[in-house]
Specification:
By secondary structure, this protein is mainly alpha-helical. Helix content is 67%, strand content 0%.
């Protein structure tokens, strides 16, 4: 803190805040929920769009989207399948988002530790 103005941060405190802002952590649950919501709603709305659009006589509705049933159990291009697909998409999106946030946080933690170690070993260049 400065002697002239007690609310002014010192140079070290300003650098600490800058480093913490540059290496801010991602909230694992928040990113998981956000990505889960996006993926679940996308699959739900894509299925509903195909149902409303329909198909020409003699053809199946959404054969390409129907291939997701190979990976998502109980999913089909139907009204109930859109709900099931939305739930399964949300679960998959949550896991992907949580893994991405965890990997991001771990990479920043490791890089920050490298920077701290190098700065305490005599200012070696990055």
């Amino acid at each position: 803190m400065s002697l002239l103005n007690p609310t002014d941060p010192t140079h070290d405190e300003a650098e600490d805040r800058l480093v913490k802002a540059a290496f801010a952590r991602l909230d694992v649950v928040a990113l998981g929920c956000a990505l889960g919501l996006v993926l679940g709603l996308t699959l739900f709305l894509a299925t509903l769009f195909l149902l409303l659009k329909g198909a020409p006589p003699g053809q199946h509705i959404g054969p390409h989207l129907g291939l997701l049933s190979n990976f998502l159990p109980y999913y089909s291009v139907s009204g109930s399948g859109s709900v099931v697909g939305g739930i399964e998409g949300a679960a998959i999106g949550f896991v992907i988002g949580a893994l991405l946030a965890s990997a991001w946080n771990m990479a920043h933690y490791i890089w920050l530790m490298v920077i701290v170690r190098r700065s305490t070993e005599g200012g070696l260049p990055l």
